[in-house]
Design brief:
Layout lengths: L19 H15 L11 H8 L3 H13 L3 E3 L6 E3 L2 E4 L2 E4 L3 E4 L16 H14 L4 E4 L9 H6 L4 E4 L7 H13 L3 E4 L9 E5 L1 H14 L5 E4 L7 H16 L20 H21 L6 E4 L2 H13 L9 E3 L20 E4 L2 H17 L8 E4 L2 E4 L3
Parallel strand pairs: 5-6, 5-7, 7-8, 8-9, 9-14, 10-11, 11-12
Antiparallel strand pairs: 1-2, 3-4, 13-15
Helix pairs in contact: 1-3, 2-3, 4-11, 7-8, 9-10
Length: 394
């Protein structure tokens, strides 16, 4: 006979804002995650749990029944005994049936200690960290690391919830995962606010507001001919939101918005980073020369991000101009470290936006757990966190 676990109460991890039912579920999940209650081990009685947590026995019994529906608890036929749910396997990895699956995009960094805070990798890793700190079993996958069987294997394991962290509106695999979650009744949370994501709980940074604030800052510093200077034509939803925010700020100031000036050729093949930077600087320079020739010389450039601001700054200097006086250059993402062009250029834009991915990660984790616990209204919830305008010292 398996020995019942000795129950230990940890007031530090119990929130007074939790309902008694949620308190039982969270205590059980923490106990399973820590090994205090081993997989397959017999659970204490509802009365014992109620005494431990200071709640009514009927409430504890109701919560245990809900835990049974979630697969956290198994009742053996012919007995009143409850046991910790069985472990499910996904691609050879053992996970609790209540595990949260995190589906990320391409992971450029695998260690949160070294991943730049602006990167998609950091966002995914921080979601994993946030969920783990809450005692959840978490599995992180990318399209390249899915187990044999792909999404079929994922959904066969019946995850407790799913978080999709990359900008998924153009990603068929991520959208398919979200669709299957909805059909299976599995709580799913997405990062972003594209129209196709609005049927799901989601967390995101407001790109329109960020671009509007950048443009207002440039206008306040005497700039009137502000040009969106993206390497490619804006087609993704968040890029279009950036353009919309820019246009709103220009019009409210009585200025005429200017169309984006793409300067890069998609799919260009280059032998190395230095050559790639050189080519993009030359293309940026060509775009600036053309605008000057046509009498449309800008006094500020609104770049896609801090990385793409670097060839723009280099091009401004090629014209013999100052990138902080003659043509102000604005970036995005506050890429103080980990920028792709770090090895080539350490120039920084005059002003940028920090999206604070750590806030999005916290929102994504909190949303999926609240949905799993049944504490959210039925309609999809959105969490929008505030960005920060950052003036960059040189």
């Amino acid at each position: 006979m398996k020995k019942k676990p000795t129950m230990k109460r940890n007031p530090a991890v119990e929130s007074p804002l939790e309902s008694p039912r949620v308190r039982v579920l969270n205590w059980l999940k923490r106990s399973l995650a820590s090994g205090e209650i081993p997989r397959g081990g017999e659970l204490p009685s509802a009365r014992a749990i109620a005494k431990l947590l200071g709640i009514a026995p009927n409430t504890a019994a109701t919560a245990l029944s809900e835990a049974e529906e979630q697969g956290l608890v198994v009742c053996r036929a012919g007995t009143n005994r409850r046991y910790a749910g069985e472990v499910r396997k996904v691609g050879g990895d053992s996970l609790a049936s209540s595990a949260v699956f995190v589906l990320a995009g391409q992971m450029s960094f695998t260690d949160i200690a070294t991943a730049p805070s602006w990167s998609d990798s950091f966002l995914a890793l921080d979601v994993v960290r946030s969920l783990s700190l809450r005692g959840r079993s978490v599995a992180l996958y990318t399209p390249q690391s899915l187990p044999a069987g792909g999404l079929d294997a994922i959904f066969e394991a019946r995850p407790g919830g799913m978080v999709v962290t990359n900008s998924v509106s153009g990603d068929p695999l991520a959208m398919e995962a979200l669709r299957r979650c909805r059909e299976a009744g599995i709580p799913a949370v997405a990062y972003g606010n594209a129209p196709e994501l609005r049927a799901f709980d989601r967390a995101y940074s407001d790109h329109r507001a960020g671009s509007r604030d950048l443009t207002r800052w440039l206008i306040a510093h005497g700039r009137k001919r502000i040009v969106p200077f993206f390497p490619f034509a804006p087609t993704r939803f968040w890029e279009q939101e950036r353009i919309a925010g820019y246009e709103e700020a220009m019009r409210e100031a009585g200025l005429e918005p200017v169309a984006s000036k793409p300067f890069c050729m998609p799919g260009i093949q280059v032998p190395g980073l230095i050559e790639y930077f050189r080519i993009n600087t030359a293309m940026s320079l060509s775009a600036l020369v053309t605008m000057r020739r046509d009498g449309d010389s800008p006094d500020a450039l609104l770049c896609l991000n801090d990385d793409w601001a670097r060839p723009a700054i280099a091009a401004v200097k090629e014209l013999g101009l100052d990138a902080r006086r003659d043509i102000l250059v604005a970036g995005y993402d506050n890429m103080a470290k980990g920028s792709g062009f770090d090895a080539v250029s350490m120039e920084h834009p005059t002003v940028t936006v920090d999206k604070h991915n750590e806030r999005s990660a916290e929102d994504l984790a909190a949303l999926v757990l609240a949905r799993m616990d049944g504490t959210l209204p039925p309609e999809p919830q959105a969490r929008i966190h505030k960005h920060e305008l950052v003036e960059v010292a040189q």
